[in-house]
Amino acid sequence: MILIFAYIDPGAGSLIIQALIAAVVSVPFFFRNAIRSTLGRLRRKPADGASASFTPEVPGATPTDPE
Amino acid sequence: MTDRPAVRREPGSYRDPSGFVFRRDGVLYRQINAVFADDWAAFESSGLHAALVAAGVLVADHPVPIDLASEPGAVAVIRPDEVGFISHPFEWSFSQLKDAALLTLRAQAMATEHGMTLRDASAYNVQFHRARPILIDTLSFERTRTGEPWKPYRQFCEHFLAPLALMAHRDGRMGQLLRTWFDGIPLDLASELLPRRTRLSPGLAAHVHLHARAQRRHAGDTDASTRTAPKSVTMSDSRHKALLDHLRRTVEGLHLPAHGTQWADYADQTSYSAAGTASKEAIVQRMLEAVAAEGGRQAWDVGANTGRYSAIAAAAGFEVIALDGDWAAVERDYLKLRAAGETRIMPLLADVADPPPGIGWDNNERASLLQRANADVALSLALVHHLAIGRNVPLRMIAELHARLAPHVIIEWVPKEDPMVHHLLSAREDVFPGYTLEGFRAAFAADFEIVEEAPIEDSRRVLFRMRRRD
Fold this sequence. Notes:
The complex is a heterodimer.
Chain A: H1 12-48
Chain B: E1 7-9, E2 19-24, E3 27-33, H1 37-45, H2 48-54, E4 61-64, E5 74-80, H3 94-113, E6 116-118, E7 126-129, E8 132-135, E9 141-143, H4 153-169, H5 177-180, H6 187-193, H7 202-217, H8 237-252, H9 274-293, E10 298-302, H10 308-315, E11 319-324, H11 327-340, E12 345-349, E13 377-380, H12 384-390, H13 395-405, E14 408-413, H14 419-424, H15 437-445, E15 448-455, E16 462-468
Parallel strand pairs in B: 10-11, 10-13, 11-12, 13-14
Antiparallel strand pairs in B: 1-2, 2-3, 3-5, 4-5, 6-9, 7-8, 14-16, 15-16
Helix pairs in contact in B: 3-4, 3-8, 4-6, 4-7, 6-7, 7-8, 13-15
């Protein structure tokens, strides 16, 4: 059991539903990343033969980032 | 020490036991309390603090001696850089709120890379600094506890996702619900107000509609009464990342329907001839430069519309708050300025005829617009007839409002013969016998000294530069 330390109330229903939603969306998230890393590896190999490393997308890196 | 207390806690800084913001001799400080010492140390040692500041995600701060603390129990005191003007989320247009939401998610993404987590996703923790969103709550980060869900998930949905979804799918004015529910729009309300078709959008179906249902269903839960005790909910790191990614995609997928309102197209259809516009711009520029020469730095463009004159003020060396009561005008202005990389102008959704009041605890937690008046000059162009005739506000009261706004005023007189006033009076009785140039001068004379009076070419309008009698 994990005790939630928070000065804001995370809400019982919110905690439960977020775990459910996270479980569901983690499936396409996994496949998207897998496809992206495979494509990245295929693209990189013929170019410079550099070792392909999985670079996870930085979530939240949006065009609205302050420069 | 003087008789008056030189130390004052900021009225909105009371929720979090780990620290608070206060002013000492007018300088803004943040005290970090002993209860938060370990998380504060981790924030530093993980490199997150430096990374956030370097990325422009978090406002910079400077350590100061601990004896500057305002209350017992401090482990550190910092002096954060101040953002120029504090604005409230209901004063932001759709894209401003959306940028603030994405910034919050970006902060959380950076935090997880450093083994930490954002523990608070309040929209009030984001401010616009040089017209770009930035987090101002340096104490919002704590160490990740393995398996813990994202605690401010609900807060993020209520503060950001629900209002954005309502604006995008129902009406741009729905953002004003944040004025009533300033601590976030209840999700059951958002779910009810959103069109049915949003149940087919996976993001909104999950984070708003299902979320609201889950809240209702588990409202009375205790650990003993349910199989899924809320405190035993766990979530792996990868699921955590997937959730945050999904939230980001949901927010990014929200867009306003493309249509204008009466004001957004207003600047294109003014009553001015080309010569009149050129003359007005030249006079406004000259008057602004005169105020700048007297040391003016901050301007409020009241009724800024699409921001033509805000740009002139910025070019004259002012930081500008560009207020308008129309959300579409503010939205258009913000998008234009963001695309241009303009950092000196902050568009703000506010109607001077109904300025945002002080709200929250003691009516003081979030300051009213007039309490936040920090302008050296108020620019009131093509405004007086909207207030006097459109809203029946007596000229004397308009003068009093301006005296509260700024020590210098550049204001345009729009006479009854003007086509725009004709338009305002087209469907109603003229009950404004006092609406004359003489009446206008007399109304302002009590509070202001008229420094300059310049008729606009090819028009019957007159520009005034006035100085408050202090």
